[in-house]
Amino acid sequence: MTDPVRLPDARPYLPALPPGTLVIERSYGMPGRERRVRALVAEAHGHGLRVLVAGDPALARACGADGVHLPEGMARSLPRHALRGLRLVTMAAHGPRAMAAARRIGADAVLLSPVFPTQSHLGAPALGPLRLGALARVYPCPVLALGGVTPRNWRRLAHMPGVIGWAGIGFAARPASVRPHPASE
């Protein structure tokens, strides 16, 4: 996931990601967003990666992105027709109500967070592995674990039913030369 402060440009890290990885572009409202999204999509596709544009289905379609990532609040108010023509739809979720909303809109996956304490949401209560697993079992929508997930603690989550992967910012915000490839752990 990109982040306007910690990871505003993911392009230098794209070659280190395994093919098929989703890159979620989240530069909400920043000037030049369309230009940045187009550049990211072109480069990511060249590496066999997929790009989701956060919060803007029209921009995702216009830039040839693979889909859209919806913030939790936006998914509740977005008309279903706004998602037509998008190959992938993911949604942020922080609990049961959002998981149910993801099911209602037909999301392909949810990013459930925060699983562990994280720099992105200092002081926010973490779900922990047990609650993550319980939510993933109850709601039939594939889950990507987000929030404080590292290659080491991912091992605690990797075999949970319904949890299909993990997402993050912090692990990628270090130079590629010192960042372990998630698939190699």
Automatic annotation (TrEMBL):
GO terms for biological process: thiamine biosynthetic process. It comes from the Bacteria. InterPro entries: Aldolase_TIM, ThiamineP_synth_sf, ThiamineP_synth_TenI. It holds the Pfam family TMP-TENI. Coiled coil: none annotated. SUPFAM superfamilies: Thiamin phosphate synthase (SSF51391). This is Thiamine phosphate synthase.
